[in-house]
Amino acid sequence: METVDIGVPLRTVYDHWTQLQDFSGFTKGVRSVSANDEVTSDWNVKVGPSSRSWKATVQEQVPDERIVWTSEGAKGSTRGAVTFHELAPRLTRVVVVVEYYPAGFFEKTGNLWRAQGRRLRLDLKHFARHVTLLGDEEVEGWRGEIRDGEVVRSHEDALEEENASDDDAEHEDADEDDDAEYEDGEEGSEYEDEDEDEDEEGEYDDEDEAYEDDERARPHR
């Protein structure tokens, strides 16, 4: 298990992780990655003096949360998971857990020396450095969702849902502004009505006083 904290927003970190084809450009262990489809990909990795090739299958993928995978190769198999955690608006923790099952005497001996763990630790640091250097540079990650090894929501559908949510949020903000203006207008009219009532009451008081004065001035019979 390896952990690294990256001073970049969570979504940006996740989107970079989904760009598997870029891993060979900034890591030392990954030689090449080719995606067959949204679920499977072929990897060629160097660990110490040996090379390994395997086919990875994503079992579960939830945007901005986690990716769980399995892999099968001639020299062993793996089960792994990477999770993404927001520690602050611009601080993300990435946790990677990998179980490696070697095949063959050489692979098992290498496993005893934890060569795979060292390789994972170094490449995770390279990933953190890569994302940090790019900073806020926008990258379109794969936003789809996978359950039990099958795509249950495509990348395009996920983007449409996000855009619809953004539009709804904008409409709600606009409605709140309109409601606030309407309430302000109502309050102003209430004050105006109160002022008019006070003026009318003042007029009635003046008329009453004038009537009383007139009554006093008349001679009584």
Walk me through what this model shows.
There is one protein chain. With 221 residues, this protein is an alpha+beta fold. The protein has a domain at 2-153: Alpha-D-Glucose-1,6-Bisphosphate, Chain A, domain 4. It is built from five helices and nine strands. The chain has helices at residues 10-17, 23-26, 105-112, 115-134, 155-217, and strands at residues 2-6, 30-35, 40-47, 50-62, 66-73, 76-88, 91-102, 145-147, 150-153. It has a seven-stranded antiparallel β-sheet with strand order 1-7-6-5-4-3-2. A two-stranded antiparallel ribbon has the order 8-9. The longest helix has 63 residues, at 155-217. 15% of the residues are buried. The model has no long low-confidence stretch (mean pLDDT 82).
Short account of what is shown:
The protein is of the alpha+beta class and 221 residues long.
Short descriptors:
221 residues, alpha+beta, Alpha-D-Glucose-1,6-Bisphosphate, Chain A, domain 4, 7-stranded antiparallel sheet, two-stranded antiparallel sheet, 5 helices, 9 strands
- The name of the CATH superfamily of the domain at 2-153 reads START domain
Radius of gyration: 35 Å
CATH topology category name of the domain at 2-153: Alpha-D-Glucose-1,6-Bisphosphate, Chain A, domain 4
Contiguous runs where pLDDT drops below 50 for at least 5 residues:
none
Q: Which secondary structure elements does this structure contain, and how are they paired or packed?
A:
Blueprint: E1 2-6, H1 10-17, H2 23-26, E2 30-35, E3 40-47, E4 50-62, E5 66-73, E6 76-88, E7 91-102, H3 105-112, H4 115-134, E8 145-147, E9 150-153, H5 155-217
Antiparallel strand pairs: 1-7, 2-3, 3-4, 4-5, 5-6, 6-7, 8-9
